Amino acid sequence: MGKIIIKTDKEIDILREGGERLAKIVKILKDEIVDGYRTEKLDDRVEELAKEFDARPSFYGYRGYPAKVCLSLNNEVVHCPPGDRVIKDGDLVSLDFGLKYKGLYTDHAISFGVGKISGEAKKLIEVTKECLYKGIDQIRSGNHIGDIGQAIQRHAESFGFSLVRDLTGHGVGRQVHEPPQIFNFGRAGIGAVMKEGMVIAIEPMVNVGTWKIKQGKNGWSITTEDGELSAHFEHTIAVVENGYEILTEV
Ligand code: MF3
Ligand code: CO
Predict the structure, then answer these.
(1) Residue range 136-170, pLDDT digits in tens
(2) Quick one: which of 138, 67, 123 has its CA closest to 98?
(3) Which of 13, 14, 53, 74 lies at a C-alpha separation of 20 to 30 Å from 38?
């Protein structure tokens, strides 16, 4: 898949600034997405917010992606253009957004419930978020990429949930997607060795039922094969001297 790009300290400084802006924007959007929210407003809203933060949305046009943000509901996993749907009470919302700031890319996703959600949805959101942090905990120079996948998979499966296999996390920074792929399952001790200056996006997609997914007619929207719920969390993280630094946090 090509060579892993090691970032300079200066690049990591910019990614930290960009990541903080991205996290702030995602937080603002989360608070705005309530019962009755018309998702057709989202593209204009993210454009406006990115501008306020001196940045640009990075997904639009990436491999032909037709929107500026991904908004996936309930049984939708990832990569759903917002379209003309209306959010309603009880929805499990997954929001995935990327920013280009001073020429460099960060990537961040969260899942949350709108209004009163089911106990199952609540548990899925909680466990998926924990999975992301279990993966992040494995980041340090000298560890293998496979250590991340094993930690994530163990945690989700201990609750009877499953990990989407066909989509992965990735290196990030100079491009939206860079090597290496960060699998959300697998075995410790395999894969590339982490090194100071690497920047990666870890993004577990956890399903209540089968790990299998299908692609929608628009060529983008990914849904669970069995129609059950799915959740998604993502952070951009740098490998630093004594471990890691999460760049997409406020
Ligand atoms: N965070 C998503 C991913 O890494 C963003 C995809 S970009 C898109 O897969 F353009 F495909 F949406
Ligand atoms: Co990503």
Answers:
(1) 999 999 999 999 999 999 999 999 999 999 999 99
(2) 67
(3) 53
178-182 sheet: strands from edge to edge: 178-182, 169-171, 199-202, 235-240, 243-246
Give the whole-angstrom CA distance, residue 132 versus residue 170: 13
**206-246, pLDDT tens digit by residue?**
999 999 999 999 999 999 999 999 999 999 999 999 999 99
The three-class DSSP label of residue 116 is coil
Domain boundaries, the chain: 9-246
Q: How far apart are the CA of 67 and the centre of ligand 1, in A?
A: 11
The residue type found at 157 is E
Instruction: Please list, in sequence order, all residues whose beta carbon lies within 8 angstroms of the beta carbon of residue 16, skipping any fewer than 6 positions away.
Output: 238, 245, 247
Best of 26, 42, 59 for a ligand 1 pocket test (most atoms within 8 Å of beta carbon)? 59
